[in-house]
Amino acid sequence: MTALSVNLNKIALIRNSRDTRSPDVPGHAQLCIDAGADGITVHPRPDQRHIRASDCRELAAMLTVEFNIEGNPFAGPRRSDRAGVDDYPGFLPLVRETRPAQCTLVPDGDAQLTSDHGFDLTRDGERLAPLIAELKGLGIRVSLFMDPEPAQLALAAEVGADRIELYTESYARAFATGDDSAAVLGRFRAAAEAALDAGLGVNAGHDLNLENLPSFCAAIPELLEVSIGHALTVDALRLGLAETVHAYQRALGKD
Ligand SMILES: CC(=O)[C@@H](O)[C@H](O)COP(=O)(O)O
Ligand SMILES: NCC(=O)COP(=O)(O)O
């Protein structure tokens, strides 16, 4: 069955809009766990617009489910511009310190609004390989954020990744507009097969939601994990967080 990893970025985004701890990130992680979430995902960015280094440290100390930290492996340290907020230590130093079960490497620029592309391993593979080896040596499973391009996925295995995370924005957009959605889903199926043939596990994420999740999972039954945050948080405004986690588990054919 496909694991649901709840991304808490948007809980932290609301928290950061005031100088308080409310909503409390670890408390909402526990709410998700109590409701049946299989994992927790965060994406600390250098500007700490939502998830902060301190959130990662607190979550690492309390989680009883898989912890997945996503981010740009080449993101360096950055001083905090907000009183009482720790500096961002750099992505890899934060991962080394917190030792999550999984680290998903994402080729984000620091100023991007959100993650919007996968790695080009023909360009980045050589400098990623030693980082991947180091993280695996620390006992951390490594996943690479990838576009659904079969040739690239074969390279992911060559650089030592354990898994890839299919960047699903193009599927979500096609599903929402109805444009070419069957063909787009076929491209994701082909990409998943290329990853599986290369011995990689397959995760997926970005813009997945209650409506588009069942079709995606039916097309890729080998899917090991989906990480979902934006749509799930919006649904929680309507349904409540616990009920929303149950709803997503039902959409995954569980619960
Ligand atoms: C990599 C990816 O698609 C998401 O995990 C990412 O966490 C979204 O980041 P924002 O929540 O900052 O949009
Ligand atoms: N890796 C995807 C993720 O963690 C959350 O993406 P989204 O659901 O916020 O788009």
TrEMBL record:
Its main location: cytoplasm. Keywords: Cytoplasm, Pyridoxine biosynthesis, Transferase. One of its GO terms (cellular component) is cytosol. GO terms for molecular function: pyridoxine 5'-phosphate synthase activity. Signal peptide: none annotated. It is an enzyme of class 2 (transferase). GO terms for biological process: pyridoxine biosynthetic process. The record marks 165 as: Transition state stabilizer. Pfam families: PdxJ (PF03740). Homooctamer; tetramer of dimers. Catalyzes the complicated ring closure reaction between the two acyclic compounds 1-deoxy-D-xylulose-5-phosphate (DXP) and 3-amino-2-oxopropyl phosphate (1-amino-acetone-3-phosphate or AAP) to form pyridoxine 5'-phosphate (PNP) and inorganic phosphate. This is Pyridoxine 5'-phosphate synthase. The gene is pdxJ.
